[in-house]
Amino acid sequence: MGGPYAASVASLGGLPTVNLDIPVCAVLLLLYISFAATNMTIFQVNKRRQHKFVLNALMFGFCMSRIVTLTLRIVWATRQHNIRIAIASTIFVNAGILLLYIINLILAQRILRAMQPQVGWNTVLRASYKVMYISLAAALIMVITSTVITVYTLNPHIKSICRDILLAAVTYLLVFTALPIIHLIIVLILPRRSDAETFGKGSLESKMVIVALSTCLCVLIAGFKTGVSWGSPRPIFMPAWYHSKACFYIFNFMCEIITLGILTFSRIDQRFFVPNGSKKAGDYSQQSEESFPEREKEVSSDDVTVESR
């Protein structure tokens, strides 16, 4: 063990340069800063009206992580031989997107619970969500660990083990990303129940379209990363087309920007709001049009381990 050692295989996005990467990163930074400010403004305005909606805060957190990611890439472009900055930049590229995956699952979960209460509120399924969130954190740890160890060793056997761990982690992330689509399919194929509930503003169809579009973009991002990871390693001086900077920025940041636009401008804080403390079938029906501004729900304890304070 030693190092860190410079990469010997081609990676997604390649080595950043001052002339190309810094202008692109600067434009993306402006977009992420704008979305961060917008989502925090929505969150604070709603909070003052006793309408707290944590998912806007999560999107703000995602934007902040991307601001850090792009800042690191700009720094890396000016210090191309600093391997530690390269490692940090790579880790942030892979880590930040997980918040969008979680948001999509929460939104799809709310649709399933409203339309199919018997399925959505099932005890086994509720426990499964907790397992999936824990597994998501474990997959992230696996990605970070394998990435770091790879640049600190020249041992081919250790590198091979790290690659296998990385492939397992990114494949799980792809499966996790597709879960909201499975929720929507269940809602569509099962007969509508008499005890189905309504929540938030807007029609069920509009909610499903929002979740479907956002999820498909995230599946595209995760699928591209998984495909690149499963591809045969190529020498750093012979990168494939999918290692190009165009693919790096389009299949990562531009898809994320479009997803942020869908979730922000569709006002999910209004459409996907459910009453505070919803824990069982029938709780969504506690909300009425008159009490909408007052009876608020952040994210229920079964949605994700984030609590409003």
UniProtKB/TrEMBL annotation:
Q: Which InterPro entries does this UniProt record tie to the protein?
A: DUF3112 (IPR021460)
Which residues are listed as membrane-spanning?
20-42, 54-77, 83-107, 131-153, 165-189, 209-228, 248-265
* Keyword presence, Endoplasmic reticulum: no
Q: Where is this region: Disordered?
A: 277-309
Keyword flag Transmembrane helix: yes
**Bias (Basic and acidic residues) ranges:** 292-309
PANTHER family of this UniProt entry? INTEGRAL MEMBRANE PROTEIN, YALI0C10208P
Name by which UniProt lists this protein: Uncharacterized protein
